[in-house]
Design goal:
This protein is of the alpha+beta class. It folds into 3 domains: about 110 residues; about 80 residues; about 70 residues, no CATH class. Helices cover about 65% and strands about 10% of the residues. It is built from 13 helices and 4 strands. Strands 2-1-3-4 form a 4-stranded mixed beta sheet, with helices on both faces. The two termini are about 40 Å apart. The mean pLDDT is about 90.
């Protein structure tokens, strides 16, 4: 998001934090914000009206109250009205903000239950499985496939062995109208990391790391960045040996493959 939308998103997150600090059903709040987002996204006239920068914020908030009164709870209606009353640079930014707040409320529920870290791990690993299985990737990313079929597939794969929030967010990513599955999951993982006030590192090696090695690496990275670091491990035999660490936009590549590629570039330059 750029310009006005960045400020609007920060204000929306602050309002969400206030709502979550109350005696609120976080799971219900999240689902109802996602419901509002779906309705707004599906109606071009409504979407344009709510994102119109020339329209008074109070008017847009009142419109949301009229449309969703009785369809969602008071807390959800008030928060949705606050979000749409901000000044957004585009219609898609408004829909994205409603979705992000809905996802964060669902993750906040996982946090309340003491399983936010579990959800983060499960989402990451499921995304890696999808990425590495062509048949599964096609089934979940085919926009022509019925939403019900993609939802049923996610539930079949996850419902019996994962946290309920993991299953719900995987369903959401698989049925997203605008965003690719992997990009959607990356966004959810970023929200989870932010709620835990930590950085997330993706570590790629040729073989599995032992629990002790992961612990030592986590400690070293946390000391280097002066913040808690959550480590997600990926095994990729193609890297041959060594280790590759990605934290945000920073990449520390000490794999043999990267060294071989560098040697090739030098030989051909």
């Amino acid at each position: 998001m750029q310009g006005a939308s960045r400020s609007a998103l920060a204000e929306s997150r602050e309002a969400l934090s206030q709502a979550l600090s109350q005696d609120t059903d976080r799971a219900r709040l999240g689902e109802e914000l996602l419901q509002v987002a779906r309705v707004v996204d599906a109606n071009a006239v409504l979407r344009r009206s709510l994102a119109d920068p020339s329209r008074e914020g109070a008017d847009k908030g009142q419109l949301v109250h009229r449309l969703f009164a009785g369809r969602v709870g008071d807390a959800s209606a008030q928060l949705a009205a606050h979000i749409v009353s901000r000044r957004w640079a585009s219609e898609t930014d408004l829909v994205a903000a409603l979705e992000q707040c809905g996802v964060e409320a669902i993750l906040a529920q996982a946090e309340t239950e003491g399983r936010l870290g579990q959800v983060e791990d499960e989402l990451f690993r499921f995304a890696r499985i999808v990425d590495g299985t062509s048949e599964l990737r096609s089934a979940l990313t085919n926009r022509l496939a019925p939403v019900e079929a993609r939802t049923a597939l996610v539930r079949q794969l996850l419902a019996e062995r994962s946290a309920p929030e993991t299953t719900r967010l995987a369903e959401l990513a698989a049925t997203h109208r605008r965003t690719r599955f992997d990009h959607a999951v990356d966004g959810y993982l970023a929200i989870a990391a932010r709620r835990q006030e930590q950085l997330t590192a993706t570590v790629t090696t040729a073989v599995d790391l032992s629990e002790e090695q992961v612990t030592r690496l986590t400690t070293a990275l946390s000391e280097q960045y002066s913040r808690d670091v959550h480590v997600n491990t990926v095994v990729d035999p193609d890297v041959v040996g060594g280790i590759r660490v990605e934290i945000g936009d920073e990449v520390i590549d000490g794999t043999i493959l990267s060294r071989l590629d560098e040697a090739r570039r030098r030989l051909t330059s």
